[in-house]
Amino acid sequence: MRTTTMNSWAAAVANLQRRQTEMNDAQERLTSGLRVMRASDDPTAAARAERARALMQRAESTERAVDASRNAMTLTESALADAGELLQQARELVVAAGNASYTEAERQDVANQLAEIRKQLMGVANRSNGAGGYVFSGQGSAVPPFLDGGAGVTYMGAGGTVRVASEEPLPLTLNGGEVWMSAPTGNGQFETQVRSPNSGGAWIDAGRVTDPSALTGAGYAITFSVSGGVTTYSVTRDDGVTTDADGNPLPSGAPFTAGQAIELDGMAVIVSGAPADGDTFGMVDSEPTLDVFGVLDDLVAQFSDPALTSAQVSQTVQMGLRDLDRLTDHLQGARSMTGEVLNRIEGIQGRLDDMKLYGENTRSDAEDLDMIQAISDFENKQTGYQAALATYSTVQRMSLFDYIKT
Hints:
By secondary structure, this protein is an alpha+beta fold. It has helices spanning 5-32, 43-97, 104-125, 176-181, 292-303, 310-367, 371-396, 400-405, and strands at 146-149, 152-155, 190-195, 201-204, 208-209, 220-227, 230-237, 254-255, 261-264, 267-274, 280-285. The protein contains eight helices and eleven strands.
């Protein structure tokens, strides 16, 4: 078989071009670090890599939502911590006001300091989240959620909470009405009251539960009678029932001893001091209506009253401490909830990191280049290209004119 010079030359050129293309492809892969640069290189691996990228994009989207919730809950936790410190300061002032040696001017000074604490708490309750909203705005409010008016503080935010739009329903806000204005009254089970008339020198404590199963939820009135220097008390129920939880008649004309507990239907209260004839105290079921600002307003008004007797001061202190402790517990509960959310976020962040790592590993396995193998392939292809180049140069010299020149 005869092979023409032109045929040999064309074959050498084709081989040279093919070798050069292969070497360029190998060099491009080395530069990009990818084994699959086009879907046509490996359709199955390209599809796996695309699914892995979609998984990582979902994780990154959820991560942005998680970051927004983390920032919001961090601000919320900080605000609740500030509120707790302010309430503790208020408690210390109320304790100090109970000092029997305090003058009217000193109690007025306590009232002024409580009023300042109230202003600070209003600022905390209306704290901005830095993004045009408010930490305690519930489902959103274009204005500060708490409005201080002549009749007291009103919550203007929408009830509920705003949550991030992602697979993880994390909160961005808290319902300020529940946090600041819905603590349980009294000791959390029942609330003691001063019912008029109350002109004597007695006061009632916050009470305690002695038997939860005996609680009836009814309201009670303890009325005192003083005759011949002897003080007695009688108990009536607001609903007209005349027997206690065990079916026994309610106390009537029972002897009173100051500082001794009066026990009734799973409750125990202590009345101290010397009640006057007709003085009445009450007990009612606890309700979630205790208001931070209302409690401070009452304390300011009471300590600003120059006509307050020592017994009334003691009563104000007793109820003030009771309400402040209940509010502190309630705010601490909200703070604990935000702490739980932040702990949840840490767990979610860990899962998202794992998801992104899995996606990256899957993508890498599908399309990334084995650099050691790729370098070896590139060197082989470079050697092949150099051999093809040498062959081409040899074929180029296979001409009659080359021989004539010699």
